[in-house]
């Protein structure tokens, strides 16, 4: 189902039509990626100004409006998520390469906080259950032991500590 709101601070709105297989394809892709977006049902007999302005050549749905910029063609909407995922992985790799090593100060540390957890561990660690659910739904592994060995080991350690164990579901 479409949900109102924004995702990661970015406003997403889909212009659609319930019966359109192209719209359904776009909606399923957005839903499986766990994105939150507004949904506006269009009428093909009375197209909204926003649809005509956003897709001036074909005037077809679906159109995904991302921070005011339209993405037309269902295939582009489906692909768009892949690029976003690539960016997310790049952010995590930076986190692994720079933040974790920086926090460890060149030594083997268990957590961002060193020997014990700090705020960074708690904030990041709280996302692990959600991340794992997304990985399962999308069929991808984001924090894997080959690509991000430090973060993968940290995630296991974080999950195992008292106070976290049993709170983050597997
Ligand atoms: N190639 C487009 C096809 C989209 C399409 O054909 N949408 C139809 C609804 S199923 C539409 O908006 N038709 C309006 C019109 O032709 O005026 C896509 O994949 O997004």
UniProtKB/TrEMBL annotation:
It catalyses: RX + glutathione = an S-substituted glutathione + a halide anion + H(+). It is an enzyme of class 2 (transferase). Residues 10-89 form the GST N-terminal domain. InterPro entries: Glutathione-S-Trfase_C-like, Glutathione-S-Trfase_C_sf, Glutathione_S-Trfase_N, GST_C, GST_C_Tau, Omega/Tau-like, Thioredoxin-like_sf. Gene3D superfamilies: 1.20.1050.10, Glutaredoxin (3.40.30.10). GO terms for molecular function: glutathione transferase activity. Transmembrane segments: none annotated. Its EC number is 2.5.1.18. It comes from the Eukaryota. Residues 38-170 form the GST C-terminal domain. Keywords: Transferase. PANTHER family: GLUTATHIONE S-TRANSFERASE (PTHR11260:SF770), GLUTATHIONE S-TRANSFERASE, GST, SUPERFAMILY, GST DOMAIN CONTAINING (PTHR11260). Belongs to the GST superfamily. Tau family. This is glutathione transferase. It comes from Urochloa decumbens.
């Amino acid at each position: 189902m479409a949900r109102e709101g924004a995702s990661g601070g970015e406003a997403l709105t889909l212009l659609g039509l319930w019966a359109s297989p192209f719209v359904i394809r776009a909606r399923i892709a957005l839903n499986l990626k766990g994105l939150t977006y507004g949904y506006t049902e269009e009428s093909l007999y009375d197209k909204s100004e926003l649809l005509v302005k956003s897709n001036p050549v074909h005037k077809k749905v679906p159109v995904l409006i991302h921070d005011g910029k339209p993405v037309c063609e269902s295939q582009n909407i489906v692909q768009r998520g892949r690029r976003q995922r690539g960016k997310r992985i790049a952010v995590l790799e930076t986190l692994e390469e720079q933040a974790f090593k920086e926090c460890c100060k060149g030594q083997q540390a268990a957590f961002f906080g060193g020997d014990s957890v700090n705020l960074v561990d708690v904030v990041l660690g709280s996302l692990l259950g959600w991340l794992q659910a997304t990985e399962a739904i999308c069929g991808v592994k984001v924090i894997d032991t080959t690509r991000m060995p430090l973060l993968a080991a940290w995630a296991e350690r974080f999950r195992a500590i008292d106070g976290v164990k049993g709170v983050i579901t597997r």
